[in-house]
Amino acid sequence: MYSDAGKLILRFMVGGLMLFHGVHKAIHGVGFVKGMLNGHGLPEILSYGVYVGEILAPLFLIIGWKSRWWAGILVFNMITAIYLAHGADIFSITPQGAWSIELPMLFLLSALAIVFLGSGKYAISQD
After folding, report:
1. pLDDT band at 18 (very low <50, low <70, confident <90, very high)
2. What are the backbone dihedrals phi and psi of residue 49, each rounded to the nearest 5 degrees, phi first?
3. For the residues 15-30, what does the mean pLDDT come to?
4. Are 78 and 86 in contact (CB under 8 A)?
């Protein structure tokens, strides 16, 4: 009955919260991402993909345009972020008892849910 409202809330949550990460990188640059890429032997140019995954994808998720596709971009973005920034933390727990990569996994799995669920009827395009 309220599944479309739930999809809207999920899109707003994932898109809205991820957008903060993208805005931070738009203001402060992606130099640290370039450093991580270099550390893994990957070309620096890939760092600009962060803007697609953390600004464009969240904006389009919020408005609900091609949500499945943009959520897939976000899933890829989060897999990449986990690999680059948190690879050593996958099996570790913080001193407070939390999983070290719980926030990236929250974004990844929430975006994956949007891939499977679609945008719902409260969207620019229903998919």
Report:
1. very high
2. -65, -20
3. 96
4. no
Own/partner contacts of 40-49, CB < 8 Å, gap of 24 or more, are 40/83, 40/84, 49/77, 49/80
Residue with tokens 């903060």: 20
List, as own/partner pairs, every contact residues 29-35 make where C-beta atoms lie below 8 angstroms and the sequence separation is at least 24, other chains included: 33/84
User: What is the largest distance, in Å, between two alpha-carbon atoms of the chain?
Assistant: 49
The domain limits of the chain are: 3-117
The reported pTM is 0.91
CB < 8 Å & 24+ apart, contacts of 111-116: 111/14, 111/71, 111/72, 111/74, 111/75, 111/78, 112/71, 112/75, 113/10, 114/7, 114/10, 114/11, 114/14, 114/61, 114/67, 114/68, 114/71, 115/68, 115/71, 115/72, 115/75
How many CB atoms sit inside 10 A of residue 41's CB?
Answer: 6
Give residue-wise pLDDT tens across range 83-108: 999 888 888 998 888 888 999 999 99
Cβ–Cβ under 8 Å, residues 75 and 112 = yes
